[in-house]
Amino acid sequence: VHQSKLDFFCKLGYGKEDICKVLENLGQEALEDDVLKELIRMGSKPQALESQAQPSPLKLIARGSCSTSPGSKWLGEDESDSSDHLRPIVIDGSNVAMSHGNKEVFSCWGIQLAVDWFRERGHKYIKVFVPLWRKEPPRQDSPIADQHILEELERQSILVYTPSRKVKGKRVVCYDDRYIVKVAYEKDGVIVSNDHYRDLQNENPEWKWFIEQRLLMYSFVSNRFMPPDDPLGRHGPTLSNFLSKKPVLPEPKWQPCPYGKKCTYGNKCKFYHPERLHQAQLSVADELRAKTKVSLSLGKEEEQRNHP
């Protein structure tokens, strides 16, 4: 009986010491309800409730800090960014590295600059695609700078190598652009590249629309990764809205009239006139009509006074 009651209350989450004390006080034949009341009176709580009552320690991280551990949450594949308002980022590693190296050197530092830029914005899903043969020692015809960065990004689960192998001394390389577009399309993300992927656009009409609407081009200015503020042109969305799942519409702003006080459109003018805030915006013709009516009425009054 003692063991069965002990097991029963242990399953409820109470400690063995508290259960034994209550059973000693009430006796082994005590009812379960009486034992439970005594446990509650003693202030004993189930372990599950105690763990909920104790707040988990919070870690303070500086805003914009990119010093995250390799096993942090934003690197995991299972941690989907459905709750996040920022789009997933898929980087064309070869394009970025060659652009930073002036199309002469495969500069891995350019990839790191691009990754850091999106990290600081708060993007959780960042993937970089690079052909597998870039892990090989650099050769004279294909120089590589800062190759250790690739190893570090691979360790952080950011960099993904596309397959390649050698057959009879010749290198067989899989088309990495197809990986980039396919992953970005499935994740509903953004492609970071200066390549237009015209062959893939002709291959799939859905990819064509996606590449046209989700391709983010960039420039390197003095080792600074700089995407444009208007990725889809002057009349398109801002960079912030382009990278967000839920774009924020700007507040409507009235454009001041270029003619200012010399404007003759009156109330038909579509621009903003700060000098007419407390005035009825009449057109020139209406103002002239109003003036003529006033002058005619004044003239009649004077005639009536002169000729009673």
UniProtKB/TrEMBL annotation:
Ranges annotated as C3H1-type zinc finger: 251-276
Required cofactor names: Mg(2+)
Top-level taxon: Eukaryota
Database matches in InterPro entries: Rege-1_UBA-like, RNase_Zc3h12_NYN, ZC3H12/N4BP1_RNase_Reg, Znf_CCCH
All residue ranges annotated as the C3H1-type domain in the record: 251-276
GO molecular function terms noted in the UniProt entry: hydrolase activity; mRNA binding; RNA endonuclease activity; zinc ion binding
Entries under Pfam families matching the protein: RNase_Zc3h12a, UBA_6
GO CC annotation terms, alphabetical: cytoplasmic ribonucleoprotein granule; nucleus
Keywords: Endonuclease, Hydrolase, Magnesium, Metal-binding, Nuclease, Zinc, Zinc-finger
Keyword GTP-binding recorded: no
Family to which the UniProt record says this protein belongs: Belongs to the ZC3H12 family.
Name by which UniProt lists this protein: Putative ribonuclease ZC3H12D
